[in-house]
């Protein structure tokens, strides 16, 4: 059983970093800012994170992991049921939509953190997350339909493009979520399904 104090501290840190990162870039958030907002001391902070950027990444990662896990489960089920290309495309769209919903939920954070030249922790988090997701997706493709590619290079290409699309959408004029999902979906390679 987890100590109630640890759960309380974890919740206080989560709330503090989300609130602070929504109001200014991560590079402008100090450990002192987080400890003050969370009502903890520096030693306690460092027992949970190495920096405000790493704390923010630790808070957002489980949400992205849940999206990846749901997508993988849907794809496994579809494969077992002999899904066609249209059904697989619908799964891809749902996964993209879930990621976009995550970004919208944390819009103020991503809008400040992704273009921050002094702290790339959130950009790295997204690229690494989507790279892992992409490698897993590519490896699970039907061998007969899969082109001859370097998995890690193709995964990096897709991941960087996905993050770039999110960054451009956040930085540009207000456009609909649907337009973003449509654009990302249509930008994937034809063999992706």
Q: What would your notes on this structure say?
A:
It contains 9 helices and no strands. α1 (4-23) crosses α4 (52-80), α4 runs antiparallel to α5 (85-105) and α4 packs parallel to α7. It is 75% helix and 0% strand. It is globular and about 55 Å long.
- Biggest pleated sheet: none
Structural shape: globular
Uncertain spans: none
What's the rounded overall pLDDT mean?
Answer: 93
Total strands: the figure is: 0
Q: How are helices and strands ordered from N to C?
A: HHHHHHHHH
List keywords for this structure.
193 residues; 9 helices; mainly alpha; Tetracycline Repressor, domain 2
Tell me the layout of helices and strands.
Blueprint: H1 4-23, H2 31-38, H3 42-48, H4 52-80, H5 85-105, H6 107-113, H7 121-140, H8 151-171, H9 177-187
Helix pairs in contact: 1-2, 1-4, 1-6, 4-5, 4-7, 5-9, 7-8
């Amino acid at each position: 059983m987890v100590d109630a104090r640890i759960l309380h501290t974890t919740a206080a840190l989560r709330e503090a970093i989300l609130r602070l990162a929504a109001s200014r870039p991560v590079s402008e958030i100090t450990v002192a800012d987080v400890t003050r907002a969370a009502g903890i001391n520096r030693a306690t902070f460092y027992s949970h994170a190495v920096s405000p950027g790493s704390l923010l990444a630790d808070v957002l990662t489980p949400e992205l992991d849940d999206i990846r896990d749901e997508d993988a489960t849907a794809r496994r089920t579809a494969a077992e049921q002999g899904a066609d290309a249209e059904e697989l495309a619908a799964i891809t769209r749902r996964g993209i939509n879930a990621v976009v919903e995550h970004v919208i939920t944390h819009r103020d954070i991503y809008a400040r953190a992704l273009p921050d030249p002094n702290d790339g922790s959130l950009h790295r988090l997204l690229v690494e997350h989507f790279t892992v997701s992409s490698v897993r997706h590519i490896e699970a493709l039907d061998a007969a339909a899969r082109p001859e590619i370097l998995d890690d290079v193709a995964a990096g290409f897709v991941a960087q493009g996905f993050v770039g699309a999110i960054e451009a959408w956040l930085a540009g004029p207000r456009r609909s979520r649907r337009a973003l999902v449509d654009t990302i979906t249509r930008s994937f390679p034809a063999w992706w399904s």
